[in-house]
Specification:
three-stranded antiparallel β-sheet, Rossmann fold, binds 2'-deoxycytidine-5'-monophosphate, 2 domains, alpha/beta
Length: 230
């Protein structure tokens, strides 16, 4: 039994930012009545905690300690789905900005930070099951997952989706700037030496460039049925 193996069923959804994996993971967890791990949130919160404590993003040993002791709670809420509390303060939508995503991508490239967050992520696997969303869920954190999905889409399509999301919230943004940010983040997440963004050998790769969320979700459910999980 590998050290990561748990008796709890885990489905992993990995992929680049903007591929729709967060939406699919949340829909699937709700459909199955399973827990949900948004692993990107842990990297985003580590970056925010570093800002709060004035820790430099190049100071790997301090960041490792910070990540290992991250005082965070994920509280289910009727109204908002999930409330995240970091060091006693509720974290709002600011955590989801491109800037925090870029900072998260920088701290996530440090092996010490990934080491500190590894067991913490595995602890989310509780009965009846877990849907885990991230970059290395199927390759590193849950290599024994019962189903691994790698969701991708072209960078242009992902920038377009992000622009639409921001416009719906009344936030002004530039397509070219979003595309540059997405490309830079893809590059950093895929080229790093530890746990780079890539599909597990046994992952099902889905390109959602020309698929609706509904179509992707149905495809994932089909794969669950094929594996006898539904
Ligand atoms: O999924 P997200 O956009 O919230 O993730 C933010 C950053 O965190 C992403 O650019 C890379 C990093 N990350 C990671 O390295 N490994 C994960 N499992 C999840 C996120």
């Amino acid at each position: 039994m590998s050290e990561s193996q748990t008796s709890v069923a885990v489905v992993t959804i990995d992929g680049p930012s903007g591929s729709g994996k967060g939406t699919i993971a949340a829909l699937l967890a709700r459909e199955l009545g399973w827990g949900l791990l948004d692993s990107g949130a842990l990297y985003r919160l580590t970056a925010l905690a570093a800002l709060n404590h004035g820790v430099d993003f190049s100071d790997e040993s301090s960041l490792e300690v910070l990540a290992g002791h991250l005082d965070v709670q994920f509280l289910p809420s009727e109204r908002d789905g999930l409330v995240i509390v970091l060091e006693g303060e509720q974290v709002g939508a600011s955590m989801r900005t491109e800037d925090v995503g870029a900072m998260a991508s920088k701290v996530a490239a440090l092996p010490g930070v990934r080491r500190a967050l590894l067991q913490r992520q595995r602890d989310f696997a509780e009965a009846p099951g877990l849907v885990a969303d991230g970059r290395d869920m199927g390759t590193v954190v849950f290599p024994d997952a019962v189903l691994k999905v790698f969701l991708t889409a072209s960078a242009e399509e992902r920038a377009k989706r992000r622009l639409e999301q921001l416009q719906q919230k009344g936030i002004d943004a530039s397509f070219d700037r979003l595309l540059d940010d997405i490309t830079a983040r893809d590059e950093r997440d895929s080229q790093r030496t530890v746990a780079p963004l890539k599909p597990a050998d046994d992952a099902i790769v889905l390109d959602s460039t020309r698929m609706s969320i509904h179509e992707v979700f149905n495809e994932v459910l089909k794969q669950m049925r094929l594996k006898g999980l539904l």
